[in-house]
Amino acid sequence: MDTSKDNAGVIILPPVLYAIALVVVFALRWLWPLPVFAAHVAAVRWAGLALVPLAFGIGAWGAVTLRKAGTNVNPMLPSTAIVASGPFAFSRNPLYVGLAIAFAGITLALNTWWGFIVLVPVIVLMHFGVILREERYLAGKFGDPYRDYCSRVRRYF
């Protein structure tokens, strides 16, 4: 089997996509702040910052769970197992959910609508360019066991 084709064929690594989006948010905020809240900004900032470690905790839990199962975290590498334990018992994409929550938390901490505006196309790109491609790949590679897993566990949360 040609292992160079044994991957999901995602269009971009998710952390790279979110990093690019964050740079765009910083640039747009610099040009036009577009604040979400005029009052209680400090409280909102702290609430947003509190989401970030929670989100990274979800992502780290997912990454550790994948590694313990002996499969790759990187979607550009082959998957070797269906992982249904840890956070994967609740969401088929906990690492991606974690990235979205972290991005939303940073957006709140920055107090700018730009983060939420930019998050919409990022989520669309993630859904069509990453997640659906991964699902097709995993269904093709693992067949019914993967489809059974999909019927039991939600895509997101």
Keywords:
single chain; 157 residues; mainly alpha; 5 helices; 65% helix; elongated
Explain what this protein looks like in three dimensions.
With 157 residues, the protein is an all-alpha fold. It has one domain (11-152). Helices cover 65% and strands 0% of the residues. The chain is built from five helices and no strands. It has helices at 14-31, 41-68, 94-110, 113-142, 144-152. Helix 1 packs antiparallel against helix 4 (113-142). The protein is elongated, with a radius of gyration of 17 Å. The model has no long low-confidence stretch (mean pLDDT 96).
What's this model, at a glance?
With 157 residues, the chain is mainly alpha-helical.
Helix and strand topology:
Blueprint: H1 14-31, H2 41-68, H3 94-110, H4 113-142, H5 144-152
Helix pairs in contact: 1-3, 1-4, 2-3, 3-4
Q: Helicity, in percent?
A: 55-70%
Major sheet details? none
The secondary-structure element order is HHHHH
Structural class: mainly alpha
Would you report the number of β strands?
0
Distance between the first and last residues' Cα: 34 Å
What portion of the residues fall into strands of 2 or more residues? under 5%
Work out the count of structural domains.
1
The residue ranges in which pLDDT falls below 50 over 5 or more consecutive positions are none
Number of helices, where a helix is a run of at least 4 consecutive DSSP H or I residues: 5
**Could you tell me the radius of gyration in angstroms?**
17 Å
Coarse shape: elongated
Mean residue pLDDT: 96
